[in-house]
Amino acid sequence: MRLSDLVSSLDMTIFPIVGLVIFFAVFTAVTIRAMRVGKDESRRCAALPLDDGDGAATLEKNHA
């Protein structure tokens, strides 16, 4: 039996379904995480591009 015969006999319809389920699970997790972010953390993240200081020092100062 050749490899091409083996591959052609496989039922590959499950792979797109598995990919869709994985995508939906990750999308749902990211959406829930984004919705649970607090107002303070949201403001801090929004100000990061405008911050001239060290990012690590800013994080330590805000969480201390």
Structure commentary:
The chain has helices at 3-9, 14-35, 39-47, 55-63. By secondary structure, it is mostly helical. The longest helix is centred in the middle third of the chain and has 22 residues, at 14-35. The radius of gyration is 23 Å and the shape is elongated.
List descriptors.
64 residues; mainly alpha; 4 helices; 73% helix
Order of helices and strands: HHHH
**Count of distinct strands:** 0
Q: Which percent range fits the helix content?
A: over 70%
Distance between the termini: 66 Å
3D shape: elongated
Major beta sheet summary: none
* Strand residue percentage: under 5%
Overall tally of structural domains:
1
The assigned structural class equals mainly alpha
Poorly predicted tracts of residues: none
**Average pLDDT over all residues:** 82
Radius of gyration: 23 Å
Query: What is the helix tally?
Result: 4
SSE arrangement:
Layout: H1 3-9, H2 14-35, H3 39-47, H4 55-63
Quick overview of this protein structure:
The chain has 64 residues and is mainly alpha-helical.
